[in-house]
Amino acid sequence: MTSSTTSNTPEVTPAIAPAVKSAPAQNARILLKELQEKFPAFGEYMPLAIGIDKQLIARCPELNRKVLRMALGMHVNSLRYLKGMEKATVRFDLDGKTTDEVTDVHRTHASETLRERFKKNAEHRKLQRVAEEAARLAEEEARQRTEKLNQLTAKFSRKG
Predict the structure, then answer these.
(1) Distance (Å, rounded) from C-alpha 107 to C-alpha 122?
(2) How far apart are CA 42 and CA 81, in angstroms?
(3) Is a pLDDT exceeding 70 seen at residue 73?
(4) Are strands 90-92 and 98-101 parallel, antiparallel or unpaired?
(5) CA dist 8 to 5, 36, 52, 105, Å?
(6) What string of DSSP letters covers 25-85?
(7) Residue 5: partners with Cβ closer than 8 Å, 6 or more residues away
(8) Cα(87)–Cα(102) distance, rounded to whole angstroms?
(9) What is the pLDDT of residue 10?
(10) For the chain, what percent of residues have pLDDT higher than 90?
(11) Confidence category of residue 128, pLDDT binned at 50, 70, 90
């Protein structure tokens, strides 16, 4: 009986379940890629049903929970997922079927997260430009100083 209930559900490779302890983040990326390939809700960045982790554990009990949590965190914090959540009205289960509604609170949270991320990125780019300009100016000053020293050296070495 067990084989008839699991034959219709995609399986996640058990090789990921033991998850090498030295690189849980790498294993989470591998797991996330696998989830995106096997489940429509992940692959199409649909708003996930609340409790999707429990659905995944029920279908794939061999999954390492820590790695799964990391993979889910990466997915729901991705730019593409957050942009979808901003405008979403319903959530989806693993098979891409609608479940419950996306609340205004969750849409607002996605919008605020995106706004903060864009602001942080803009500030980072601005600081990077300022640092690059400062480095360019310092390089130019050093070049001018070297040129001046060379001129002085040439001037005084002729008189000797």
Answers:
(1) 23
(2) 9
(3) yes
(4) antiparallel
(5) 7, 17, 18, 35
(6) HHHHHHHHHHHHHH-HHHHTTPPBPTTHHHHHHHH-TTS-HHHHHHHHHHHHTSHHHHHHH
(7) none
(8) 9
(9) 52
(10) 69
(11) very high
